[in-house]
Amino acid sequence: MKKTKVLKGILILLGLQLIIFGLWRLLDPISFFNFSGLLLSSDAGLLSEARGAGGAILGFGILIFLGAFKKNLSYTSTIAAMILYLGFGIARIISLVVDGNPPSMIFQGILGEFVFGLLALFALIKYREK
Predict the structure, then answer these.
(1) Which of 33, 49, 71, 81 would bridge with 40, disulfide CB 3.0–4.6 Å?
(2) Residue 1 to residues 64, 81, 119, Cα–Cα distance (Å)
(3) Which long-range contacts (CB under 8 A, 24 or more apart) does 23-30 make?
(4) Number of domains in the chain
(5) What is the number of other CB atoms lying within 10 angstroms of the CB of residue 120?
(6) Cα 21 from chain centroid?
(7) 50: closest CA among 77, 58, 103, 100?
């Protein structure tokens, strides 16, 4: 990937967002879900699933963030961001069709995931070295 301030800014933004939400979901999953208007019980199995996903999101956030500073990671980081954000967005659209309307905060999440995923796609197209 070409080394530019714009690409660096995009990867920092996308990485930090995942780091923050991944940490929140990992450390306080009940509060994380309440923020979206969802109730998560204190069932150990559900909490384990929520924390596990939080750890994965955190890990991808760190990878994407590091891509802003390590040129040899920038391509991988951009691809990871695009797949993760668009994957979440597409999965939520499938859930919308199959399961019905979620709380309004989830709709904001869907919009954000598509915006960030398309931002990563833009970065891949614009800054990829040929």
Answers:
(1) 33
(2) 13, 14, 15
(3) 23/54, 23/58, 24/54, 25/50, 25/51, 25/53, 25/54, 25/57, 26/51, 26/54, 26/55, 26/58, 27/54, 29/54
(4) 1
(5) 24
(6) 8
(7) 58
Backbone phi, psi, residue 96, to 5°? -60, -45
Domain extent, residue 88, equals 5-127
pTM score, whole prediction: 0.92
Per-residue tens of pLDDT for the chain, all 130 residues: 999 999 999 999 999 999 999 999 999 999 999 998 899 999 999 999 999 999 999 999 999 999 999 999 999 999 999 999 999 999 999 999 999 999 888 999 999 999 999 999 999 999 998 7
Amino acid, single-letter form, for residue 34? N
Q: Can you read off the two tokens belonging to residue 14? A: 């996308």
- Is 67 exposed, middle or buried, given 0-12, 13-18 or 19+ CB atoms closer than 10 A? buried
Residue reference for tokens 């019905």? 100
